[in-house]
Amino acid sequence: MQSVLSEGEPRPQAPAIDPTMEKRVVRKLDRNIMPLVMILYLLAFLDRSNIGNARIAGMTEDLNLDSDAYDWLLTIFYISYIVFEFQAMMWKLIPPHMWATFCVLGWGLVSSVQAGIHTWKAAMALRFFMGVTEAGYGPGIPYLLSFFYLRKELGYRCGLFLSAAPLANTFAGALAYGITSGNPGLAKWRVLFLVEGLPTIAMAGVTWFWLPDSPVKASFLNEEEKEVAVRRGVRQVGHEGARIGGVKWEDVRAALLDAKCWFTALMYFSCNVSFSSLPVFLPTILKEMGFSSINAQGLTAPPFFLSFLLTILTTWIADRTQQRGIMVMALGIIGGVGYIMLAVSDSVGVRYAGVFLAAAGIFPAIANILPWVLNNQGNDTRRGVGIVILNLVGQCGPLLGTRLYPSGEGPFYVKGQSICAAFMFFTTFLALGLRTLLWWENKKLDRLYGTLEEQKRQREAGGAQHGVVGKEEAAASEAGEENYGPLFRYVL
What GO molecular function terms would the record report (predicted)? Predict the structure, then answer.
């Protein structure tokens, strides 16, 4: 039962934390959690997108696949990925180390078994199950990270996690070339699937023993550091209760009716049209520019490496400035311009420069959209539902994106490039709309509670917070900085 504060009574403050100790805890979280989730996402992205490398390594000829059959192999993955998006909530219902291990082992087995297929139907079935298992991992990791990091810390960590995707694409071509350049006893594309799938299976064991369910259960923290982690949690959400094990259905309904969730979902859809198509079609696009298969594989690396660097840099800047919307708008414009260059120019140099801009816009934009969802929901259940909505809508983008580059429209693929450009600009428009809505919502909160500066001055003076009394005051007093209450403001 909540206690009701009298109107003049000072509000309880979150437990004080030694800043030096807090930095040490965050560094330990970074060193032990981030590399693991990044490596797993890197493997996931390799295992889902290496079909593009397998295509030019002889898979289509051996399985007698035409362009339409190949496109369906890409599409079926995202159909199952969408249908099973609800699994993002499993991170709250099942101990994370168990759930993650199940997902990693699942897609690792599926990826490896692809080496033994002989028919298109078998390939379709395995791509479907790969989508099921990967849907349980990647979409939920930003949600999991919100259990360990504060709002102001979360965007950069999401950026680090998501940077594994362009990093995977950076060396995917070189790795594929190294794997397929010899004369193995198996078909080269079969060796590719096998060599890239087996390490994932091995990582399932590492995940079971190393991924913590919560900061309190992290074996790499000592007792003093775990106490700091508990205090950080209280400062986040206002109580010391477990954050794993259940959902609040009234918050599920509230999130479903929240326009902010749908704005970000549409942004994610728009970016995913391009995000899904670029890695799997870029080797083919470069090959049809006139490069050999080997050179086409190698030339995919520089644009993706630039994207990797920008994914980390832009999320760090957005965290520092708390201006994520402006960052998404700028990246949407950059990506759109890149696709326009690919659509209208017949110069190889200009088109290759367009690839750089497209990659520099797509991946960093997505890396900033995902934490924006978490930044702007005020409790764990609503954050989880926001992630589910984001992915249910957003992962429909690949259903379109994976079918934009039919072989008959090469080498310029004007229609596909133009559609991707339009969606990147649409992302910019949506980001502007959401930022305007969040600015308006913050103004309402300022009128209700007083600005953050006014509240700070009142706390320093020992006075009561400005705004509500009675039950509202009591609820506000128990809300952490990241839950709805006087100190909560939306990240623009």
Answer: transmembrane transporter activity
**What contacts 290, CB < 8 A, 6 or more positions away?**
348, 411
- Domain carrying residue 395: 249-459+483-491
pLDDT-derived band at 386, boundaries 50, 70, 90: confident
Contact criterion met (CB below 8 Å) for 328 and 274: no
309 with 259, same domain: the answer is yes
- Mean pLDDT, the chain, rounded, equals 82
Residue 469 pLDDT: 41
Per-residue pLDDT reduced to its tens digit, 418-466: 898 999 999 999 999 999 999 998 898 888 888 878 877 877 776 444 4
User: Based on the domain organization, do 438 and 416 belong to the same domain?
Assistant: yes
**Integer Cα distance of 119 and 469 in angstroms:** 68
Tokens of 112: 């490896």
Distances (CA, A) of 472 to 254, 372, 448, 477, 479: 18, 27, 11, 9, 11
CATH code, 395 = 1.20.1250.20
pTM of the model: 0.78
> How far apart are alpha carbons 93 and 453 in whole angstroms?
38
How many other C-beta atoms are found inside a 10 Å radius of the C-beta of residue 432?
15
Q: What residues have CB less than 8 Å from 18, skipping those under 6 apart?
A: 228
Q: Are residues 108 and 255 in the same domain?
A: no
The radius of gyration computed from the CA coordinates of the chain, to the nearest angstrom, equals: 24
Express each pLDDT in 464-491 by its tens digit.
444 444 444 444 444 456 666 777 788 8
